[in-house]
Design brief:
With about 250 residues, the protein is an alpha/beta fold. The protein contains eight helices and twelve strands. It starts with 5 loop residues before the first strand and ends with a helix. Zinc ion binds next to loops.
Length: about 250
């Protein structure tokens, strides 16, 4: 093949992680066999588009639709934390109005922790890739997943490939990546179904309380959807201590 039909890609930062095992170098010479966007080309080599923060073609910043030509030199850089999806960039010109998440089942235990911090976090253990991608698109949600194939889907604009194995470390990873710090809106959402809780008068739900809860607690919230009742009991304190340890600071 003539020189003009090849392009060269340099993958920076942690993007090597996604390259196939037979490509240990971050420099890849790639044969152009068809008309392809830089996004297709990058993803065919491994990294999902959600991990990319900047692309330069022959030193100029380009977007994902840039069509690669023979002889092009492409430098591909990862997102660098803290990443703010509410700001417009060349790769993602339409900023999010607010941070909202959808959690894949492979990091599902993190959903409850995100909700306890007050983040709008959609999750159900039965949801497959197609459903998660559709939700990300329709509700402008950021996908949190360990599934590279899911993060490559066209309907997903924002996402994070979660590297940590344990839920507490995963939470820390997400908070660090998006630069999220205390104070959080703690215990403002239903841990079971993500709805915003409402204050409820004790007398209205007193018949549902255990004797000790009835005796020692005065303030309660209720989920408007599943009707679960919340109060500042020992379960909340336990969760708070766990979150403090995970976040590594005051809430
Ligand atoms: Zn609920």
């Amino acid at each position: 093949m003539k020189d003009a039909m090849w392009c060269t890609l340099y993958f920076k930062g942690g993007l090597n992680y996604f390259l196939a095992n037979d490509k240990p170098s971050n420099r890849i010479r790639y044969p152009l066999k068809r008309r392809a966007s830089v996004k297709d080309l990058i993803e065919s080599l491994g990294p999902p588009h959600t991990e990319i923060g900047e692309i330069r073609a022959n030193s100029c910043q380009v977007d994902f639709d840039f069509i690669v030509s023979g002889g092009d030199v492409l430098v591909v850089k990862p997102n660098v934390p803290p990443v703010d999806p509410c700001r417009s960039t060349i790769l993602r010109p339409e900023p999010l109005a607010a941070l909202r998440f959808v959690v894949d089942v492979n990091v599902g235990k993190m959903a409850m922790l995100m909700r306890s911090l007050g983040f709008d976090t959609a999750y159900h253990w039965t949801w497959r890739d197609k459903k998660i991608a559709a939700l990300a698109h329709e509700e402008s949600r950021i996908v949190l997943s360990k599934d590279i194939g899911l993060l490559k889907r066209k309907k997903v604009t924002w996402g994070l490939f979660v590297r940590a194995a344990e839920p507490d470390a995963q939470l820390r990873e997400v908070l660090n990546f998006f630069g999220l710090h205390p104070p959080f809106d703690l215990f403002s959402r239903c841990l079971r179904c993500n709805s915003l809780l409402r204050k409820v008068d004790k007398q209205a739900i007193i018949h549902r309380l255990e004797p000790k809860t009835r005796k020692y607690f005065q303030e309660f919230s209720i989920c408007p959807d599943c009707r679960r009742i919340y109060w500042a009991g020992s379960h909340q304190e336990k969760l708070l201590r766990r979150i403090e340890a995970a976040v590594g600071g005051e809430n």
